[in-house]
Design brief:
Elements: E1 2-6, H1 13-21, E2 29-31, E3 37-47, E4 50-59, E5 63-68, E6 76-85, H2 94-103, E7 107-112, E8 117-121, E9 126-135, H3 136-143, H4 150-157, E10 163-167, H5 170-180, H6 189-208, H7 221-236, H8 244-251, H9 255-266, H10 270-287, H11 293-299, H12 305-316, H13 320-323
Parallel strand pairs: 1-5
Antiparallel strand pairs: 2-3, 3-4, 4-9, 5-8, 6-7, 6-9, 7-10
Helix pairs in contact: 5-6, 7-8, 10-12
């Protein structure tokens, strides 16, 4: 199942989606019909120049959502929050759970709407997906940051294309889930949506402001595709450290450009990204896939379990054994 769209002035995602799939829309909301799955999509006009579209559904088929590049340039900034929940019962099958984690990792993306994107939602997974479309000047007025540099300078002031990837931190995932499940009978629901949309912007930019303030380079769709190819290759085998020269050749980038754009986009060096993802998978293996400490360590390439435990404790603030006991 595929839906393609282009953001133009006055574009209404819910109305367009409803017309394409022949689904009735009431008050900027539609219910997913039973033959497609279950759930809903809703659009909230927070204020002029600030829209919030919420997707919460479980679909029977894999769903490709494609945003095409508009013909005309726009000052609209797109912020995408994507949080996938494991299919019910998949944690029992350890390998299925691990592959789902790798292939459907949750994330936040901040990008120029001029860059085309594609998001793939797996079948039978509960999806929490939020998109904020906000005018650049309105975002600047909300943030009110005096010293603007690094990614924030590019987002707020540069005419070049940009794309930033940030982790779906637990506090952001919590807010996204909460706002997706609000009871529409609440008479203050519009105020609630507005508060939570602002909270999600705050949580995101609080992290982005921690990034280095080095000069940012423009990116294009081809660059982004290559960076995600590199990211996928790293995640494919977290038991082996990445070889930079091999990754550069595979992606068709110089090693210097690859390292620079990767850090700019993902907020960390390739090796630090690898180590962080390695520890995140270790935590997943221990808590959700039923692995023992030794099984998890060996799977992730550690021959010295004491070294594994030290790195794990540095990352999570607790030992692997204690981590499995935390609810």
């Amino acid at each position: 199942m595929t839906f393609e769209f282009t953001v133009q002035p006055g574009f209404n995602f819910v109305k367009s989606f409803g017309e394409y799939f022949n689904i009735p829309v009431f008050n900027n909301e539609l219910k997913i019909p039973s033959h497609m799955g279950e759930g809903h999509i809703k659009m909230v006009d927070v204020e002029p120049g600030f829209k919030f579209v919420l997707h919460h559904y479980t679909l029977k088929e894999e769903f490709h959502l494609k945003r095409n590049s508009p013909v005309e340039t726009s000052d609209l900034i797109s912020i995408v929050f994507n949080s996938n929940e494991l299919p019910a019962g998949s944690a029992v099958d350890r390998e299925t759970a691990i592959e789902f984690l790798k292939n459907n990792g949750s994330s936040i993306q901040v990008a120029s709407t001029a860059i085309s994107t594609e998001t793939i939602f797996p079948a039978n997974a509960e999806i929490y997906f939020g998109v904020i479309g906000i005018r650049r000047q309105l975002l600047a007025d909300l943030l009110r940051v005096d010293q603007v540099n690094g990614p924030l300078e590019t987002i707020l002031h540069s005419d070049s294309l940009f794309f930033y990837h940030e982790k779906m931190h637990p506090e952001v995932a919590r807010v996204l889930k909460l706002v997706s499940e609000i009871n529409e009978q609440n008479k203050l629901s519009d105020l609630f949506y507005s508060i939570k949309a602002h909270e999600m912007i705050y949580l995101l930019f609080d992290k982005l402001l921690d990034r280095d303030n080095e000069k940012q380079s423009p990116v294009n769709k081809a660059d982004i595709d290559k960076l995600y190819l590199i990211r996928t290759a790293i995640l494919a085998d977290l038991g082996q450290p990445p070889h930079l020269n091999e990754l550069a050749v595979m992606a068709g980038l110089s090693e210097t450009k690859m390292k620079h754009l990767f850090k700019q986009t993902f907020g960390d060096t390739i090796y630090n990204f690898y180590q962080n993802e390695r520890m995140q998978e270790a935590g997943f293996l221990l808590k959700h896939a039923g692995y023992s400490v030794s099984e998890a360590g060996y799977r992730l390439g550690f021959s010295n379990l004491s070294h594994f435990s030290r790195l794990f404790e540095k990352h999570f603030g607790t030992t692997p054994k204690k981590y499995t006991l935390v609810g």
